[in-house]
Amino acid sequence: MNLSMRWLKEFVDIDDNITPRAFSEAMTMSGSKVENYEIEGEKIKNVVVGQVLGIEKHPDADKLLVCQVDVGEETPIQIVTGAKNLTVGDLVPVAKDKSVLNNGTKITKGKLRGVPSFGMMCSVSEIGVTVNDFPYTIEDGIWVLQEDCKVGDDIREVTGFNDTKIEFEITSNRPDCFSVIGLAREAAATFHKPLKLHTPVVKGGNGDCSNMLDVKIENPELCKIYSAKVVKNVRVKPSPRWLRERLRAMGVRPINNIVDITNYVMLEYGQPMHAFDFRFVDDAKIRVRLAKDGETITTLDGVERTLNNTNLIIADANKPIAIAGVMGGEYSGIVNDTTTIIFESANFSGSSVRLTAKQQGMRTDASSRYEKGLDPNSVLPALERACELVELLDAGDVMDGIIVDKHFDENARVQIAFEPQWTNKFLGTDIPEKDMIAYLEKLECKVENGMITVPTFRPDLQHKADIAEEIARFYGYNNIGTTSVSGGSQGKYSPRQQFDRTVSQSMLAMGLNEILTYSFISPKYYDKILMPENDTLRNSVVIRNPLGEDTSVMRTTALPSMMEILARNYNNRNSDVYLYEMCREYIPTEPDKLPIEKNVLVAGMYGNDTDFFTAKGILETLLEKVGLKNYDIRASSNEYTFHPGRCAVLSVNGEKLGVIGEVHPKCTENYGINTRVYLFRIDMDILYQYADNQKHYTPLPKYPAVTRDIALICDENIPVIELQKTIEKAGGKLMETVKLFDVYQGKQIESGKKSVAFNVTMRSKDSTLTDEQANSTMQKMMNALEKIGATLRS
Amino acid sequence: MRNQLEEIRKSALENIKSADVLQDIETLRVKCLGKKGQLTSILKQMGKLSPEERPVIGQLANEIRAKIEQAIEEKTKEIKAHEQEKKLLAEKIDVTLPGKTVKMGSRHPLTVVLDDIKEIFVGMGFDIVDGPEVELDYYNFEALNIPKDHPARDTQDTFYITDNILLRTQTSPVQIRVMEQQKPPIRIISPGRVYRSDAVDATHSPVFHQIEGLVVDKGITFADLKGTLETFVKRLYGEDTVVRFRPHHFPFTEPSAELDVQCFNCHGEGCRLCKGEGWIEILGCGMVHPDVLRNGGIDPEEYSGFALGYGLERVCMRRYDIDDLRLFFENDVRFLKQFD
Predict the structure, then answer these.
(1) For testing contact with chain A, the best of B144, B241, B249, B250 (most A CBs within 10 A)
(2) A-chain residues within 8 Å CB-CB of B336?
């Protein structure tokens, strides 16, 4: 919302020595945030009114003229120009030597085709205005001034191009501040000045219009009041400069006096207005009703719109003539031969206007005001003000009487208990009661007998907390003290949060970088990771209004996200990439129930020395760190994303904990990755459930250990883990560790077999092991191993 | 015999002096002092001496032996020291060659900043709680004073799943969930992902992160809000940070405020960084609206509280001078490695 300071000063006396910056700062701190301000023509320097005294042809150029121009100095100055619209005696803007135009261009004396020129005569755009602002002038050519001015006057002063525009950010709870009067009220309270409101006075005397029009609201729940007044003998012409100037500063283009009046009143009162040509209102009937499905209207912007039965419209006896609160119809608008008009001022339901504007894709100045909820009590004053302006501008003859259909109690007021003690306790302040009353009365809240009566233009004031805010912002937020919350409280990370942190720290310590990815993906990503058509994970939470297909479903697996990032790094030629993400997967439950948000850890990597066992080593280290024991790891060829011969599933207590493997070459190809990629995915909720990070002290051994190496020959399909578990079991109490140190196939080994070598450490808690004890344990191991088909390598 | 002994002493000491490798010393030792050495063989002839001469010569021989042994010992030390010196010289390396680094990973920059923020709040007695990202309309809007036709819904373009389920547009629904589950005193923060249907560009992302804060207890005041947040901001940005509270509007707090810090670059003068305002908007906050407390099952006549909401990406971008939000989700390792 832009505000003209000139207009504002009609309502509040803001000292001229308050700079725009100081004004903005004070308004911001009292709750009306200023985004920006701009001083019209601020850059213009040394541009004055000049009078053309003589015009001669340029001796060496057909298209140039040499003018003598009086700029109020001792002698006239010579200016060479190419303009054709000048005659002797014209008053024109002259940019003298060493002057600056509105856009920052510097003008200095020079020569044009050999003839000295001491400045430049300016067009409207060089000053920074348009032909809309000064309708008597032309676009191409020198601005021949028709202002009340004399030679040598500053151009900004004589054209009024010296207002200050303040741009406010108005919050949605303050529809009243979408108006000059609303902001003036805030400014008056901020600067402790009286607010000078004006009551419109209409002379009338041109016959009564009360019976000229039949107005009826058919949907009173959507329209509290509809009022109209008729103006005869309309004289459509440009508005006077003072009015055009104010519209310009507020960012509204002047059009003609009638349209300008409706805009002026909207800006001043915040109450949108509309004007119909009386001729085009069939049967002089106005109906405020919901549209019929399929009814059409061509709006002022020339677009034909199809309506539905949720759109509130203004209709005559036969057809829609306006979309209520949004935009009028093209057909019934003001044209040059309009003679009789109807001014409309009405109050429509905010939510209805908002919905219609959204459906029709047309947000207008009117709709954006209505949708925040306007004060029905401003409808009639605004209508009076419009008619007053018609008389002031001599734009027509205002008729007496008024046509109103009304469905609300204009005397109803919200009352809130005035509780100064509670307020001070709530704010942590010590504001005197009389100061509180003074702040509230500035805002036109009456305080009487312990009750606050709220004006109807402040629908946001409903509760004593709302009153506390009004008091706080005029007392000054920054004058309120700072205290710390009393009462001790112990902040802490929950065990689960500590666990997540441990996992994260472990991943970082092992050289993996943390990534964060979007939670939504394309359903096609499931294809990319080779998920079968009928897999239940294809059933995702679907976004009804996604930005695009690639962000349209909530992922049920975080693997595609990891693959995307690995692919991006691969494409960016990053070598040896190790990544992890701790994130959520979203598993649908029942329709209209929230999904399960599962926490997972996904790691992904590729690199020169990276293989399955690199990934597995990272995973095993992690599981050891968090204290997960007794988990089961088995080869799996059923995990679709993975290489069927290089993939394992981890489980604990019969629950699937996760999966690890080399990514299937078809999948890496889908991502354009031309190297082997390794992934694992762990269900963090299950991991947390079974991890046991309770640490217990185990005394260091007192007696020496015996170590033996054993080399076995067995079928190549026997997993090493099976051999190891057999050894561990057969070793019984004496078994300390079994460490694999070699797996070999090739020369000297029969084909289809492999050689596996372990280093076995045995120790007794109570004594030094004898050779016999060690030998007999080794024998037990060999017996057990032979049963599963492994023999000692000779 | 005396002459012989003197001769041995002389030649031995000279030889020792001129020796420069350990082996020569050893050879000399054997030659002079060994079982078959010169000194031993002379002493074997002691029997030929007169009883008067014997002790004198014996003493002399022992003296000479001690002298030689001492000389050998000294020389050995000297040679050893010399040899070590030579070895050390030969072992010289180029210490400017790169070290054998241990590969470590880096936290995501958003995590780095979030961890700092969590530490500060935990230090101030806050717990950390989580909430669902796929959320009911009720918690995200209705219970926070934003009914179906509220204009504030326009400013938060929402991803809907069904009429009643959406992707949360803010972390504020956690306020209601916490109040439903926990009686005051409440002192929590809740960081997490939020979603708005903003097309991706340098300053917009459909996914971003917020941190919600909520304090509810008897007698919580606006001054408490100011004190707590000022402490937080000063711990995060430095003790000399200048803070101001400015009135604002949020449907779920009353009074509401925005907290600005004075521009670090221009100190309030106004510059390009702060868009000429001299201040940079940091977070939104306010006293919890009585209706919101009621929706959380807490009696606003008995309790009061304050809440805050904080955008993580913006803080992170400002801290590291990152000019493009998209980098956070592209996760190029060359980017990721710069912050931790």
Answers:
(1) B249
(2) 513-515
- Say if residue A135 is preceded by a cis peptide, omega within 30 of 0: no
Q: Report phi then psi at B4, rounded to 5.
A: -60, -45
Q: What is the overall mean pLDDT for chain A?
A: 94
pLDDT at res. A435: 96
Q: What is the pLDDT of residue A332?
A: 76
B289 contacts in chain A (CB < 8 Å): 463, 465
Whether A583 shows a pLDDT value over 80: the answer reads yes
Find the closest chain A residue to B122 by CA distance.
Answer: A491
Q: Does domain B109-336 have CATH number 3.40.190.10?
A: no
Q: How large is the C-alpha radius of gyration of chain A?
A: 42
**Which pLDDT score is estimated for A430?**
96
Does any CB of chain B come closer than 8 Å to the CB of residue A579? Answer: yes
CA B325 to CA A565: how far, in whole Å?
Answer: 16
In this complex, is the C-beta atom of A412 within 8 Å of any C-beta atom belonging to chain B? no
Sketch out chain A's domains with CATH numbers. Answer: 2-40+164-190 (3.30.56.10), 45-159 (2.40.50.140), 214-406 (3.50.40.10), 421-479 (3.30.56.10), 495-690 (3.30.930.10), 706-792 (3.30.70.380)
The domains of chain B are located at 2-90, 109-336
Residue B318 — very low, low, confident or very high, per pLDDT cuts 50/70/90?
confident
pTM for the model: 0.86
Of A351, A491, A595, the CB nearest to B134: A595
User: pLDDT tens across A586-633, in order?
Assistant: 999 998 899 999 999 999 999 999 999 999 999 999 999 999 988 999
Select the residue of B167, B287, B337 nearest A465 (Cβ to Cβ): B287
Name A121's bridge partners: A94
Would you say the ipTM is above 0.90? no
As a three-state string, the secondary structure of A549-616 is: HHHCEECCCCHHHHHHHHHHHHHCCCCCEEEEEEEEEEECCCCCCCCEEEEEEEEEEECCCCCHHHHH
pLDDT at A39 over 70: yes
